[in-house]
Amino acid sequence: MLAEDRLNAIVSMVQQTGSVTVPELAEALGVTASTIRRDLQTLDRAHRIAKVHGGATSLERAHVTRDLTLNERSDLHNDDKERICARAAALVEPESFVYIDSGSTTLRLIEHLPHLEDVTYVTDSVLHAQRLALRGMRTVVLGGELKPETEALVGPDALATVDRYNFNCGFWGSNGIAAEQGFTAPDIEEAQVKRISMRHTAKRFVISDASKFGMVAPVKFADFRDATIITAGEVPAKYRAMDNVITV
Amino acid sequence: MLAEDRLNAIVSMVQQTGSVTVPELAEALGVTASTIRRDLQTLDRAHRIAKVHGGATSLERAHVTRDLTLNERSDLHNDDKERICARAAALVEPESFVYIDSGSTTLRLIEHLPHLEDVTYVTDSVLHAQRLALRGMRTVVLGGELKPETEALVGPDALATVDRYNFNCGFWGSNGIAAEQGFTAPDIEEAQVKRISMRHTAKRFVISDASKFGMVAPVKFADFRDATIITAGEVPAKYRAMDNVITV
DNA sequence: TCGCATTTGTGCGTATTTGCGTGCGTGGGA
DNA sequence: TCCCACGCACGCAAATACGCACAAATGCGA
Question: What is the Cα–Cα distance from A221 to A192, expressed in whole angstroms?
């Protein structure tokens, strides 16, 4: 049996019954549990099913423990982002104070963060904060006005709070990445929070898929040299050669 | 059976009947009460159901209660809370700056808030903030450390932020209400936020069902005279007579 | 046939889940 | 007043599931 066929078989089994266990699949398809697990991982990444502890369920049913799938589904650069986040998450060190910017990429990053000794995470997004707390992380939220669209906190309170902190490292998303125009965002207020938070961070990382290179959004929040970029996929040659660009 | 399926089964059982006990669930799903309890905890944290003493109820039953014409038997406080929240919500005036404390009663209050001109709501709960934003309210969140259990923000940042504000009116929940011991809460840090926020508010309202009268929690956050209490149900005569108690 | 990449199975250490026992507090009856 | 049933949190131990590394098997092109 072809591996591809096996994947399809798994999907249809899941669709039919709603959920299956790993041993069930292994038995039915005549392979070991390890292989099934690897298959489930593949299918989960492709968002064809949802992998859960013990087996897999259809996406519709999966919203109990994993409610990220909705946002993730709309995402084309999925595999790349996955790798980017895994790489970025490995940069967090024990006993550090870490800033996490709002945005969909950083939200995904949270799922990859390891459980280390004595790490505190600070974020400007209530959504990110909830995810962090759910994962058992020590979490601090900036104050400020809540922007309904992005669930990010902005305004003088957010700025004043972040101004008192000094982070060991931090992760930001960016709508535009260009050598001349630097890192850019669509909103003035959010850009301000990004700018100030970066200013108080020792090791700065922008995590982004390759599609953002060469793009320019209305408001600049940092120079191109101000952060190390962790990216993946078809990075333009011009950027790939730069020494603050890490392609995974 | 997958753990994930079990969680889904619990949710649908709760949805169907409105409420269900732990032994019922354990019997129906073939697991022990311990496991059920852990599941309920998970689901409660995910806000899929509301965990109550002895079992679980649907969120509608516990919070919204818009259209529960059927099965109104259980939860006596439910109807009371509805009336309390409706009365409290009517106290918000246009062009005001309003504080909303964390807690389940104030969460319900949010559903009743009218859409008025130029009102800004400030809260120490990320959950409340999300609901407010969802309803289209201008929303500000205090900063600070996020307590996973209550989704409330505490610590010096929360206190520093609230210290800069002055509210026209505010609404608090209270775990204990007693003439001598005043208003009390179970947690020191949360009590601090309550105390400071009250200090900066002109018109202070505590909203609570009658069961809290005479109860005393570990930490006091205000004197009995410091707020007007909006309540309903079987209020002890001693309290009913007080002029800062409004029974609806 | 050889070399190389990919896939699959196996072993092992770690995490998670689950059931069970214990102790605590509460709220009735006897 | 004592006692018991009940619900619940906590900790422990067994079973299970998991991820990872490495080896074996397989597939494929030269």
Answer: 7
Go through chain A and tell me how many residues it has.
248
Q: Per residue of chain B (248 residues), what is the pLDDT tens digit?
A: 888 888 888 887 887 777 888 888 888 888 998 999 999 888 887 777 888 888 888 765 554 332 222 223 334 446 677 788 889 999 999 999 999 999 878 888 887 888 888 999 999 998 889 888 877 789 999 999 998 767 899 999 999 999 999 999 999 999 889 999 999 988 889 999 999 999 999 999 999 988 889 888 889 999 999 999 999 888 888 898 899 999 98
Chain A residues close to B42, C-beta within 8 Å = 64-65
For chains A and B, CB pairs below 8 A equal 112
Contact B148 A133 (CB under 8 A): yes
User: Which of A132, A141, A149 best tests the B interface by mutation, with the highest count of B CBs <10 A?
Assistant: A141
Task: Identify, with chain letter, the residue nearest to nucleotide D10 (CA–C1').
Answer: B34
Q: Are B100 and B78 in contact (CB under 8 A)?
A: no
